[in-house]
């Protein structure tokens, strides 16, 4: 009775009126494979009828979209499903998460912890109202209206920081779509106000969840929905500009031959090879790869993207060799990334972490012969989880006895996590000097932490200094020589990774390991054929502290042994300066282009100086070869 009263109250307050579907010009697209979709629907329906259901709460809205599109369910079964998901709304106004939705079917207590589920549920679910309202029975329509009346309260009550891009944009879409669907101008205005605040933030400071293979996909979903369904011309134009900004960013970093987003990444859940939602569901099908979208929600978003397409500039920049990208991603003073793309390699760095899933120092190799392979990436972690398989292999449960007391509620014990240390980078196109300084945290299970560089096992040659390494069979563990320099050659690309400074114990050397590791995708269904990886790992001291400075460099056109020898000599003979005084580290190398390095106070965690032949322009937003394309698109919103 209380639930019914609250529902009626909110319906009255919000002036939610009976709504008959307004047909618009949008044509509901066909999914890629109707047979697979029907098989999935049958499996999901069976899972939903288990006790408790074995389908996630938010997945029920995706299920309903497909079920209504195919008329898979009877009217009474649609009503039953809507009523079922409504049981996961927290209807008690005295509870912390009033109006929000539980993620699963067994939680109780009125506190959802992670409050994002209501955003996902409405992002998916409002399309039921917009596209299939006329297929609902009067009872199902009334129940759905009540659901949205309750969840609007949850959306309003959940705080979302502006830098939490994917959820913030979802919130904007939800307000605007709910307001339109129920002819409530005040709710639309809530969405407009939130969207305007976000636009100004991004126009000035960039996108904090920058270039995430997962969340960039979620970001463009909300923007695409706004572009397609927003009736307000002002909102439509702003969403179109924001989408243009995002697509320009993604195109500049994209590797179309390999089908992956290159560059440094925030929130990348795949440490070895970062292809995810963005590439698989949206950009790769747009570029001509197979479309595997067999859920209507993704296919709707993809069809909007396909209709819009990439601009001629975005297509051109994606193919441009030797492009250099500089971008800002937050209001903090050192939140910049840089990314250089050659023909067969790209190399990128960032001077600050956003999350314990970031790829801040990364290199990618590929060619027509091997278009996709494991990336080269640095991580500092304390679980001996070198390849980032902790989450996929269920190590959180297996190692739960090692969880420290008073572990943070949202610490992510069951997820793959690396540290979020102090860091700094100075990059000049195809080379950078990087510093990382960290301490073990609540996700570590050892007294020490590791510095690991993941490497693809597809090099034609490997060298330590001027010694060629011929062994690399499974079980190999070879320490670096006294030069602390790793060289590798892939076709005509040469790479160098030199440890310039570290706090490792005397006698401890970075070691090249072949663990027999092979990467298998577990989030998106694709097969990485060339999936073997190696690692270069340095163990730091047992006091849990780790400091390291490295110089990474890549060059191409190294098509003879003599040129490769010259490349190695240019690294080995380069003058290096390393000083440490009272915790202040000053490290640089005299490269062929000039002095490259950095200065930092490791005690106070301060970045004191950057040495770079071509200093970074700190006033930029998103620059490609010195032209600030970000300001050209978003400058009007500053």
What does this molecule look like?
The protein has about 650 residues and is an alpha+beta fold. The chain contains 16 helices and 24 strands. The chain has an 11-stranded antiparallel beta sheet with strand order 13-16-17-10-7-6-5-4-3-23-24. Strands 8-9-18-15-14-11-12 form a 7-stranded antiparallel beta sheet, covered by helices on one side. Strand 3 and strand 4 (about 335-340) form a beta hairpin. Helix 5 runs antiparallel to helix 6.
Q: What characteristics describe this protein?
A:
638 residues, alpha+beta, 7-stranded antiparallel β-sheet, globular, disordered N terminus
Task: List the SSEs and their pairings.
Elements: H1 2-13, H2 34-48, H3 57-70, H4 75-86, H5 117-132, H6 138-157, H7 165-181, H8 185-205, H9 215-229, H10 233-253, E1 254-255, E2 260-261, H11 277-286, H12 296-308, H13 312-319, E3 323-328, E4 336-341, E5 345-350, E6 361-365, E7 376-381, H14 395-398, E8 422-428, E9 431-439, E10 450-456, E11 461-464, E12 467-468, E13 477-479, E14 485-490, E15 493-502, E16 511-518, E17 532-539, E18 545-556, H15 561-572, E19 576-581, E20 584-591, E21 594-601, E22 606-611, E23 622-624, E24 627-628, H16 629-634
Antiparallel strand pairs: 1-2, 3-4, 3-23, 4-5, 5-6, 6-7, 7-10, 8-9, 9-18, 10-17, 11-12, 11-14, 13-16, 14-15, 15-18, 16-17, 19-20, 20-21, 21-22, 23-24
